[in-house]
Amino acid sequence: MAGGQRAQGLNKPCILLIVIAGMERFAFKGVASNLVTYLTDVLKMSNSTAAKTVNSWCGFTSMLPLLVAPLADTYWDQYSTILVSSSLYVLGLLALTSTALVRPWIPIKKTGPSSSLFWSLYMISLGQGGYNPSLQAFGADQLEIDEEILPCSSKNDEISDKKSLFFQWWYFGICSGSLLGVSLMAYVQDTFGWGLGFAIPTIIMVTSMALFSGGSRFYALKQPKGSSVAFKSFENMVHAMKATALKIVNVRFALLNKSDVVELELQEKPLCQPGLDVSEGLNKSSNDGIQIREIARVILHLLPIWTMLLMFAVIFQQPATFFTKQGMAMKRNIGSNFKIPPATLQSAITVSIILLMPLYDVCFIPLGRIITRNEKGITVTQRMGVGMALSVVAMVIAAIVETKRLEISRNSQSETVPLSIFWLLPQYILLGISDIFTVVGMQQFFYSEVPITMRTMGIALYTSVFGVGSFLSALLISLVEHFTGWFCDDMREARLDNYYWLLALASAFSYLTFVVLCRFYKK
After folding, report:
1. Would you say the C-alpha torsion 212, 25, 308, 438 has a positive or negative sign?
2. What residues contact 161, with CB distance under 8 A and at least 6 apart?
3. pTM to 2 decimal places
4. What's the CA gap between 279 and 283, in Å, rounded?
5. b/e for 453-489, b at 16 or more Cβ within 10 A?
6. Could you identify which of 239, 243, 321, 495 might form a hypothetical disulfide with 51, taking C-beta atoms 3.0 to 4.6 angstroms apart as the criterion?
7. Closest Cα to residue 494, out of 507, 481, 475?
8. Are 348 and 432 in contact (CB under 8 A)?
9. CA neighbor of 421 nearest in space, from 337, 331, 496, 325
10. Measuring CA to CA, how many Å separate 298 from each of 239, 277, 287, 457?
11. How many other β-carbons are positioned within 10 Å of the β-carbon of residue 164?
12. Beta strands 330-331 and 333-334: pairing type?
């Protein structure tokens, strides 16, 4: 992606960790991309219930790093967090595979979602919550191996270039893993069964654990400093509390002595340790309070932009839910024997990203410089806005195609209509292009718009958009299901076109509000 000479700047640990990250994406997408089909066809859930289940699970999975990452930074080291989290990850995949294997022997009357299924899914979420952020940070830290051998004058620029190169290849690695997971596992699950379809991601994840452990001798392991820092902060807070209490007691003693009410004697053992700098403790406590207020101020400053991005995240829940169900009701034959698994079309999003990402710098940025007369082509907020606009167009196209499918289904006796599934490709491809603009722009925006000491919080704000967006999608489905009859299990009666129009209108409103907010936004 960046040229052969620059690719040599990554060391062996970085390359290994990028491969491991791609394997994890293969395992996760191999389960998540076709999960709605498993819930509806095997567990006999309704379309709306299955969609809400997948959205809630994806939302929980996306939000969990917000809780786990601070603990990993403060109390644990990244290496141990990766090992423990990957173990939980594998246990969840093993449990999910076992539920799929025993399902054929369960009586028909007892089919339905079981507690073991949900326990296995949320165990996967717990494992991924600590695994993904720790693995990426651990990979970026490996670049600091070369930092000491660089000249001081070029050290910062060289490390910055290497980290930029690392994140580019990291994104390429996870996209490649996602592409293979979506395309291959959907076919295996629909053709050979769900037991094998869940077992292969489990084997891949176990293999990635073995590779990670085998590469331990190459890693640069940092001593965990977070726990000592946290202890220091706690110790300073206790000292400040002691100092404040001592001042209050001394004032009380002085008042009592002046009024001659009672004569008090102090013990020989002091309340504070000798040599404790009381003012230093108070200053550190005051600084902690200022830091908390600074975090709140930054979050409130970014909150309007963050809120307007939620509808973009809602739209990105559709390929794994209703787009897949939409494809199941369309003609999927290639030749006389082969049928395309509907979930496989999600790979069009990843293929679009992999193929068109290099063209962004080569073609779009020079064109943007001509139009905007900006050296960078377009600003970060303009980049996000372009992707949001494309997502609205994608939903409009999805609504038009669904309207056409319903018109044909009225003259058809079968639920599957003679309309090729490839009519869904434009909406998938447009979502992939919008991903290049908005998702990459979001990463850059939230990373750069926070102070240097809050960069982890910036990345957490970016990931939380998709977590909250998943929950918002589930809530929206519940409201629409309550007030309308659009989510009928019979796809000839369902009105997904109306739902798509609703999403398009809501996204267009968010986009227009986003444009207005960006005009008044100050860095």
Report:
1. positive
2. 6, 9
3. 0.70
4. 6
5. ebeebbbbbbbbbbbbbbbbbbebbeebbeeeebbeb
6. 321
7. 481
8. yes
9. 331
10. 29, 32, 16, 10
11. 12
12. unpaired
Q: How would you write 308-344 as a 3-class SS string? A: HCHHHHHHCCCCCCHHHHHHHCEECEECCCEECCHHH
Cα 270 to Cα 234, 243, 264, 275, 280, distances in angstroms: 21, 12, 15, 11, 18
- Closest to 133 in 3D by CA, of 213, 66, 222: 66
DSSP string covering 165-191, please? HHHHHHHHHHHHHHHHHHHHHHHHHHH
Tell me the one-letter amino acid at 518.
C
What is the DSSP annotation of 396-427? HHHHHHHHHHHHHHTT-SSSSEEEEGGGGHHH
Q: Is residue 522 within 8 Å of residue 400, measured between CB atoms?
A: no
Q: How many Å apart are CA 464 and CA 62, to the nearest integer?
A: 6
DSSP assignment of 256-313: HHHHTS------SS-SS-TT--HHHHHHHHHHHHHHHHHHHHHHHHHHHHHHHTHHHH
Walk along the chain (523 residues) in steps of 10 and give the mean pLDDT of each run.
Answer: 48 89 93 89 85 87 77 74 92 93 68 74 90 81 60 52 70 86 88 92 95 88 52 43 48 43 41 46 51 72 90 90 87 81 86 83 81 78 92 95 90 81 93 88 79 66 86 91 86 89 96 91 67
CB 330 within 8 A of CB 398: no
SS3 track for 114-163: CHHHHHHHHHHHHHHHHHHHHHHHHHHHHHHHHHHHCCHHHHHHHHHHHH
Please answer whether residues 200 and 23 qualify as being in contact, where contact means their C-beta atoms are separated by less than 8 angstroms: no
Which residues, at least 6 apart from 239, have a Cβ–Cβ distance to it below 8 Å?
272, 276, 278, 281
DSSP line for 74-105:
HTS-HHHHHHHHHHHHHHHHHHHHHHHHHGGG
Radius of gyration for the alpha carbons in the chain, expressed in angstroms and rounded: 27
- pLDDT for 220: 78
Spatial neighbors of 440 by CB under 8 A, at least 6 apart, are 171, 383
How many C-beta atoms surround the C-beta of residue 263 within 10 A? 7
Residue the block writes with tokens 């056409």: 404
Beta bridge mates, 357: none
Label residues 132-154 b or e (16+ Cβ within 10 Å = b): bbbbbbbbbbbbeeeeeeeeeee
Q: What confidence score (pLDDT) does residue 276 get?
A: 45
Return the structure tokens found at 179.
Answer: 């592409």
Sign of CA dihedral 336, 341, 347, 349: positive
Residue 494 DSSP label: -
Residues 342, 186: Cα–Cα separation, whole Å: 8
Pairing of strands 330-331, 417-420: parallel
